[in-house]
Amino acid sequence: MKQFFLSTPIYYVNAKPHLGHAYTNIVADAVTRFHRLCGEDAFLLTGTDEHGDKIAQAAEKQGMSPKDFVDSVSAEFQELLPRLNIANNRLVRTTDDAHKRVVQTFLQKVHDAGDIYFADFGGHYCYGCERFYTEKELENGLCPQHRTTPEFLSEKNYFFRMSKYLPWLAEHIEKNPDFIRPERYRREALAMLESGALEDLCISRPKSRLTWGIELPFDKNYICYVWFDALINYISALSWPDGADYARYWPGEHLVAKDILKPHAVFWPTMLKAAGLPLYNHLNVHGYWLSRATKMSKSLGNVVEPEDLCARYGLDAFRYFLLREMHFGADANFSETAMIGRINSDLSNDLGNLFSRVLSMLAKYYDSRAPEESGKRKADDTAIAQLCAAALQNYVQLFSTMQFALALEALWELVRGLNKYVDSQAPWALFKQGNTARLATIVLVLLTAMRKIALCLWPVMPETAHRMLAQLGQRTQRNSAPVESLEAEITSFEGPAAGTELAPASNLFPRIGVKNLRSP
Ligand code: MSP
Predict the structure, then answer these.
(1) For ligand 1, what atom is nearest to the CA of residue 296?
(2) Out of 61, 67, 156, 295, which one is annotated catalytic?
(3) pLDDT, tens digit, for every residue of 73-123?
(4) Cα of 284 from ligand 1 centre, angstroms
(5) Active site residue 126
(6) Where are the alpha helices (DSSP H) in 314-435?
């Protein structure tokens, strides 16, 4: 069995999770489920990033100890996972003892190899980013992320000899066009490397300034820079160096948004190289969800809460909308009106209607049992079988390259094609005429294609796919893939066995009235 490993970023616990965090986790879950559906042994990792200045400051503001504070916010992130139906295999916390030990082993290894040195240092420190900026990286003297004036700090610190590996990294990215994808982020990473602004990485903070972190194994007076600590989660969660999961799943894939491209495209591969570990296979980078065309922020009052939307519209409709609306890599604007539009058109009118009309015909004509095939297929029927094979083929190809919006669009060609097929074949007229042989062929073609649609949708809408399959007479386990190999379903077109019991009715996605609309 082929192994597949995917990680999300580990989230800071200084604020509550919002739509952006939910999106990354839903994409990660859908991709992992997709690989399970293709017969792979797929492992999903998520977690929380709990060290550093920002967290220490947030804890102090709440009048809590850092540990009590991170425990409570990490719990909030963890509670959100089942509510979004995220089937992660592990959740890593950077305050776990096991993670701390791995970070120290990694640091010692790089230190022993001579790639960590101690030096005097003066730099522009941004507390928001928790990192030093070089003169060249600042924009008009300001932090390019936060637009604030960084503080100039002068102190002795430990450095990772990152500059030594930058030419090698540029060559690796050049030679492996999908190492960082989509293309725009690969180019952005190359531009960073070519700019000359990158230097060695300061990887320590003196304890006199910050104590909330992992102590350096070679100097008790320093703790590890939060990004160096955080990136190592991807292998500490797999129990590097000796763990069975590390041997089984590494190297894998990462999923992040564009805000954290640099640490993942530059710091992490050079760290892996310095420690003598294999590099990840792909870094998949998505864009930002905007609200009212700007970045979501508490002060603007435009933060979109995932829980609230799920409660009002249903989790699967929400998951579908996020994957259908955002073109992976580009930014997207979140609009509740657009979401209602998609639910009503794609889910209610197209998909829901298909299931509802076909199952109610079967209830009326066949007492909700699959009939026996008794006539030959005609050209219209083979055209549907071909449309089905093409839709599945495209779906698999597009989904496996993270093009979810296009994959779903390809599948909807089949959904719409089936609705048209019902209209043009008019089974109700055949029933009136008593043409039962032809009628049976048509409903069997429909049931066969509808099952394929349900299978394809399992990664995106697991609960709905489970219900759709149950309505079609296929019992499935809630959290395991409904078939062994989706690829094998592309070429086959086998209908249900005669007598299979079907649901008498289906009401998957009731239409939503616009009166439900509230502004975010
Ligand atoms: N702790 C670091 C990551 C360390 S990974 C070794 C961090 N945490 S974060 O809480 O700020 O999470 C950033 C991530 O949250 C983004 O990369 C993205 O996955 C998700 N998003 C946060 N806001 C988002 C949007 N508005 N839109 C889409 N995703 C966003 O950075």
Answers:
(1) 26
(2) 295
(3) 899 889 999 999 999 999 999 999 999 999 999 999 999 999 999 999 888
(4) 13
(5) yes
(6) 315-325, 336-342, 353-366, 379-400, 404-425, 427-433
Ligand 1 neighbour 296 (Cβ under 6 A): yes
43, 5 contact by CB (below 8 A): yes
Taking the alpha carbons of 132, 135, 137, 141 in that order, is the dihedral positive or negative?
positive
Residue 129 marked in a binding site? yes
Is 129 catalytic? The answer is yes
* Token pair in block for residue 273: 């190289």
Which of 14, 19, 21 is the best mutation target for the ligand 1 pocket, counting ligand atoms within 8 Å of the beta carbon and taking the most? 21
Q: From the CB of 55, is ligand 1 less than 6 Å away?
A: no
Instruction: List, for residues 406-458, the tens digit of each pLDDT value.
Output: 999 999 999 999 999 999 999 999 999 999 999 999 999 999 999 999 999 99
Distant-in-sequence contacts of 311-314, Cβ < 8 A, 24+ apart: 312/516, 313/339, 313/340, 313/343, 313/512, 314/509
- pLDDT for 368 beyond 50: yes
Q: Is 405 in the pocket of ligand 1 (CB under 6 A)?
A: no
Q: Taking each helix axis as running N to C, give the angle between helix 53-61 and helix 66-83, from 0 to 180 degrees, rounded to the nearest 10.
A: 100
For a ligand 1 pocket test, name from 7, 8, 12 the mutation site with the most ligand atoms within 8 angstroms of its C-beta: 12
| Residue whose pair of structure tokens reads 């703790």 in the numeric block | 223
Which fold does the domain 344-515 belong to in CATH?
A: Isoleucyl-tRNA Synthetase; Domain 1 (1.10.730)
DSSP annotation of 89? S
Does ligand 1 come within 6 angstroms of the Cβ of 288? Answer: yes
Based on the residue annotation, tell me whether 282 is a catalytic residue of this protein: no
Active site annotation includes 224: no
- Return the structure tokens found at 474: 């296929």
d(CA 514, CA 511): 10
Looking from the CA of residue 24, the nearest atom of ligand 1 is: 19
Question: Does 143 count as an annotated binding residue?
Answer: yes
298 as an active site residue: the answer is yes
Nearest to 151 by CA among 127, 135, 130: 127
> 160: helix, coil or strand?
strand
For the question of residue 143 being annotated catalytic, the response is yes
* Per-residue exposure over 173-211, b if at least 16 CB sit within 10 Å of its own CB, e if not: beeeeebbbbeebbebbbebbeeeebebbbbbbbbeebe
DSSP 325-351: HSPTTS-EEE-HHHHHHHIIIIIIIII
- Among 21, 51, 254, 452, the one annotated catalytic: 21
Q: Reading across the β-sheet that carries 215-216, which strands appear in turn?
A: 204-206, 219-224, 215-216
Instruction: Tell me the CA distances in angstroms from 374 to 103, 182, 244, 385, 473, one per residue in order.
Output: 66, 49, 54, 18, 20
